[in-house]
Structure formats: structure tokens, C-alpha cells
Amino acid sequence: MPEPKQKSVTKTQNKVGRPTTYTPELAALICEQIGLGKSMRSVLKGDDMPAMSSVFLWLREHKDFSEQYARACEERTEAMAEDIIDISDESSRDFIETEDGRQIPNNEAIQRSKLRVDTRKWLMAKMKPKKYGDKMEIDNTHRIITPILGGATKDEKVIDQE
User: Which helix (H) or strand (E) holds 31?
Assistant: First the structure.
């Protein structure tokens, strides 16, 4: 008995997993989100986004993406400054109403807001130290200026170094 002819069936399988191929459009989307103030980790959370290791590889291999990413990081710093204003002005969760109707401070929400502001300030100082870092004055006269211990903060003791 002759064997039945088998039909040639070609299945096209959808790719499973995160994208690994660099495209300028995907790079622009990533940088846009970073420029709006998001972290790379939060931008890449979606299943349609590449793994962080792929993005780091792209940064090394694609100069245009590397430059675009650097600009996005600078923009993110400015977005953080805007966040600080919003976080500082938001007071809707600062008080809790008790069962008897009294308003008491919501210390957890207040401390969380303080942490959010402080974290952004610290990151901004690291990312853009010339603009947001602590200002340091250097006295080039070979003198060390130190506050007198236990005294008022305005009092200073000058020690000549010669």
C-alpha cells in the first residue's frame, strides 16, 4: 500500500521573550521615558521592552544611542527638580482623621515624602554636580578655617599653615 503524501506545513512562530535587536525607534522610546524622569529599570519592565543587559550592549555599540541616552539622563535630572516641587507641595496625605474626628499628622506619609525629595536631591547632585552639588569654596591662602567646637556656628578659628 502506498504511503500517503505528507503535506508540507510551515508554521510561523511568534518570537517569545524580550526584543534583543536594536532599532532607533525603540532606543528613542527608551530615551524619551528616561528624559521624563523614569529610571531605566522602570522603563524596561514591560514584556515588549529589552532586557537591561541588551540596552547596556546597545549603549556600547551604537554611538548615536549613547549620545541620545546621555541627553535623556540630563533631562531626567531636570524632571527630578520638577518632581521635588510637586512632592513638596503635595499635602493631601499629611494628616489622618481619627475615629473621633481629630486630625493627626501622618508621619509615615510625611517621612516618605521627605525620603523621596532627599533621594532626588542626592541623585541630582551626583548626576549634575556643577549645578546641583554642594558648593565648595577653596581658600588658596594655605589657611584652614574650622568652626570652634561648642561655639556659635558663625565663630571661626583660623589656623595659619606656614
Answer: helix 24-35
Residue 20: pLDDT band by 50, 70, 90 thresholds?
confident
Paired residues of 145 in beta bridges: 158
Measured between alpha carbons, how far is 40 from 81 in angstroms, rounded to an integer? 18
Which is nearest to 83 in space by CA: 130, 123, 31?
123
| Mean pLDDT, all residues of the chain | 84
Task: Compute the distance between CA of residue 117 and CA of residue 81 in angstroms, rounded to an integer.
Answer: 9
Going through 1-114 in order, the beta strands assigned E by DSSP cover 95-97, 103-105
Percent share of the chain, pLDDT over 70: 73
* Whether the Cβ atoms of residue 30 and residue 43 lie closer than 8 Å to each other: yes
CA atoms within 13 A on the CB side of 120: 21
Looking at the DSSP assignment, which residues form a beta bridge with residue 95?
105
Q: Residue 106: what are its φ and ψ, rounded to 5°?
A: -95, 85
β-sheet bridge partners, residue 159? 144
Q: Check: CB of residue 141 under 8 Å from CB of residue 149.
A: no
In 3D space, the residue among 145, 139, 93 whose CA is nearest the CA of residue 114 turns out to be: 93
Residue 60 has a pLDDT of 96
